Predict the 3D structure of the following.
Amino acid sequence: MDLFVSMRTFVEVVQSGSMNAAAQRLNVTSTLVGQRIAALEGHLQVKLLNRTTRQQSLTDFGETYLDQCRDILEMVARSEGTANDEQLTPRGRLRIAAPVSFGTAALVPMLKVFSDQLPDVEIELVLSDANEDLIAGGIDVAFRIGRLEDSSLLQSQLAPYKMAVCAAPSYLAQHNMPESPDDLDPFRAILFSKTGRRPWRFSSGKAERNWTPNAIFSVNSGQAVREAARAGMGIAMLPEVLVQKDFSSSALVRLLPEWGLPEKPMSLVYHRDRYRPQRLVKFIDFARETFGKR
């Protein structure tokens, strides 16, 4: 038994949430992963994982041993890598999760830049407006929009997520251009169904206004809201990053530019591990630089 390989496998099984997920990330069979864990438990003469057909959990000793494995593997990585750090080429799979609109409009174009810098890293992007569980989903790093609950995950604050109210020129031709939120009552709204008919909150200096949208259409996709707005169905509140090109091409017109909308905090979250592969370290640095606070 290769003790270090078995220890790495054990850490990966815990981080990935299952032996099958660990096998995919390690590019080996799930049978081999199971054999390594069994060999490690046999070597230690103690059980590390409680396993059922549906889930797994660490034993009390397994929790302690996991921290020890991470410390040992970190020291090994440092001793192997420090001297030749400049020659190391990050490689392997990096699994990233992001909200659909942000991921499609902002992240995907920048992943080309990251991929050009690290061509040996395989990127797997998971787009979902649900907050993916990093362990259960085998996620290395995730972008999160909105307030974060207390978590064992590490968090890096990025630039806030900004929203804009907009409409197509064809729709605006039927209405007078609004000068304040008080002028929005005649307008029909296209809604993102996840947020529903929550009031849109506007502010300008010390002035604040709430407007409850009169919906004509709702859908559970930000991209579909954008297409409906471009088609002239009504006004929409959309992420700026999703409609910047539409503003430039005049396919959509920004409404009430002097009235601000609440910004949503955006964060990068990742495991609280002492040892991180270079591909993850490099991506965290890249994301902070690309989407950091402005």
User: Anything to note?
Assistant: The longest helix spans residues 60-81.
